[in-house]
Amino acid sequence: MDVEEFRKYGKEVIDYICQYGTNIEERDVAPTLDPGYLKKLLPADAPQSPEPFKDVLEDFEQKIMPGVVHWNHPKFFAYFPSGNSFPSVLGDMLSSAIGSIGFSWASCPAAAELETIVMNWYAKALGLPKAFVSDAPGSTGGGALQGSASECVLVSLITARARAISELKGQTSVHDSVFLPSLIAYASREAHSSVEKATKMALVKLRIIDADEHGRMRVDLLRQAIQNDVNAGLTPFFVVATVGTTGGCAFDDITEIGKVCREVSSIWLHVDGAYAGNSFILPEMRVFSAGLEYADSFNTNPNKLLLTNFDASALWVRDVMNLKSALNVNPLYLRHEHLTGVDYRHYGIPLSRRFRALKLWFVFRTYGIRGLQEYIRNHMALAKKFEMLVRKDERFEVRNDVHLGLVCFRMRTGDEPNHMLLAQINHSGKMHMTPAKFNGRYVIRFCVTYEHASEKDILDAWTQIKCFAEEILRDHQLESSSVPTTPEGSERTSSEPVAPVAGKPPIKKRLTRTKSLRFSFTRSISREQYQSQSEHLMDGCTPILVVDPKTLQENFQKAADDNDRNNSNGNVKLKDISDVDTDEASN
After folding, report:
1. Which intervals carry biased composition (Polar residues) (predicted)?
2. Cβ–Cβ < 8 Å for 29, 76
3. What is the percentage of the chain residues whose pLDDT exceeds 90?
4. Which is the most buried residue in 156, 161, 301, 398, by most CB within 10 A?
């Protein structure tokens, strides 16, 4: 492709992107295809000869787009937002065109210096402690853009591990690996699974701390766990607090967690704010950032709630020397004479780094702080609108505290009807949502994600949700004990009739059991498998695990058959199960 062809097709691609964004509502939010669909459409081997680029674009629309989930669709309410604004896309295009590999200041001075400036802008906009701002008087801290929050957690944990081992090692010549078995990290049960993955990669233990009814880490249990581990000869070295958990957007109490961490000098406190950390750009949300002065590191993703397309995750540390000493590898071929320039290869895992700061710079300049604030406040207002609609309908309940853009709701029935509801929603292709386990109950996550979301989008979604629910509720009884606490003025009395659903109801499609599980993001497994998974953290994208009722019934029948064979005195009881256990199991 020469420059004139690039100019021609580049304009066509820009036109396609504009048309895609303008007409996106005409597409289904998510495909209902089966795995392997694309393999049937594409050849097994790459072409030997060049093909016309117009054919590539045609195949993109006809073969690739049918399998795309449209994360920037007005009816996409799953996961968290995927920031994808036009200024960000243009910044990324220029970054790709320049093609710099910014591992050091010398490799691209503009990339290194713009990243420093933008990270300081960002920290100040969020109201972070001055210790995280590299140009603040007396500061030893600073920030860097990573690829994802998972990278931020891993980098912070590796840095904390290096610091803890250095303190344990002292002046001895013992190898670092000798100290690994004594190191232990802590995270809430509501923390992201990237914490668990990081501890596995770093070969250290993880202690999972239970959360309270609001999804917040229980600080009393954290303190007790740390004390127990110290008494057992272990070294607590890393604690993760979360602001905006994946399951229910809960905010851990950073101040109280920070006080506990300060009691043990070896502990590094990391605060994960992948989604909700960006909300600190709003002064009214900074009540949840109280306590960040205790943190050694903090991360948030502008690609989630700051209109910057993936990949972009911001990590700040209180002392960059801890980071650089843990990750510094400086071979001769990478050295240069500009000692005052920042080499960001020492701030993360990869050597090669994209010019990520450019797209974030474009976003800050194009929207301004006020524009970004308006965008987030709109998401918050629409989430509150949806919460109000749910709470006014006695058949539904809201299970989380709605502070930002996420509402976790469910029908006041058992879990299985809610599986069915989500499966119907997703199989329709007209909306897309995901589940979570919150306070032990299966909930449907409704997250406002679209940049230009409106009240109409929320009202339309609620109308369709009720249409799907009405058919399911004909065969299932409500749980009266599950009535949620409603804000003043939003109660509905049991005698008040439910208003009929207006508008054309969605098309009901009968789902097989397999498709019902697939579209409700649920997986049936044996009780043994279920119990083995109970000590793992969730990530918000893997299926919710449930015990297969068929397997449960087969196991029960097998136990009964074994009991019949092993008891010949006529006094039949299930082996190894007391009467109380049997009664509880039947309930």
Report:
1. 479-488
2. yes
3. 68
4. 156
CB 265 within 8 A of CB 214: no
Please give the CATH topology (third level) of the domain spanning 94-329+340-366.
Aspartate Aminotransferase; domain 2 (3.40.640)
Residue type, 118: V
User: 352 pairs with which residues across the strands?
Assistant: none
Mean pLDDT on 509-518: 67
One-character DSSP codes across 434-486: EEEEETTEEEEEEE---TT--HHHHHHHHHHHHHHHHHHHTTS---GGGPPP-
Nearest Cα residue to 448 out of 395, 509, 384, 524: 384
The torsion angles phi and psi of 196, rounded to 5 degrees, stand at -65, -45
The answer to whether residue 252 scores a pLDDT higher than 90 is: yes
Distances 91 to 97, 159, 366, 560 between C-alpha atoms, Å: 10, 31, 11, 66
Q: Which two tokens stand for residue 551?
A: 């397997």
Range in 108-112, 441-445, 480-484 with the lowest mean pLDDT: 480-484
3 state SS of 353:
coil
**In which band, very low, low, confident or very high, does the pLDDT at 492 lie, cut at 50, 70 and 90?**
very low
Task: Of 92-96, 520-524, 526-530, give the range with the top mean pLDDT.
Answer: 92-96
Residues 6+ apart with CB under 8 A from 221: 209, 210
Kindly report, residue by residue over 16-62, the tens digit of the pLDDT. 999 999 999 999 999 988 899 999 999 999 999 999 999 999 999 99
- By CB atoms closer than 10 A (0-12, 13-18, 19+), residue 53 is middle
User: Whole-angstrom Cα distance, residue 568 to residue 133?
Assistant: 77
Cα–Cα distances in angstroms (integers) from residue 392 to residues 400, 462, 486, in the given order: 16, 12, 8
What is the side-by-side order of every strand in the sheet holding 142-146? 142-146, 313-317, 297-300, 268-272, 235-242, 183-188, 205-209
By C-alpha distance, which of 423, 422, 415, 464 is closest to 445?
A: 422
3 state SS of 208: strand
Residue-wise pLDDT for 427-437, tens only, equals 998 999 999 98
Of the candidates 385, 458, 543, 422, the one whose C-alpha atom is nearest the C-alpha of residue 30 is 422
Give the pLDDT band of residue 498 (cuts 50, 70, 90): very low
Q: Which three-class secondary structure state does DSSP give residue 572?
A: coil
Query: Which residue type does 241 have?
Result: A
Is 451 in contact with 56 (CB distance < 8 Å)? Answer: no
CA 490 to the chain's CA centroid: 30
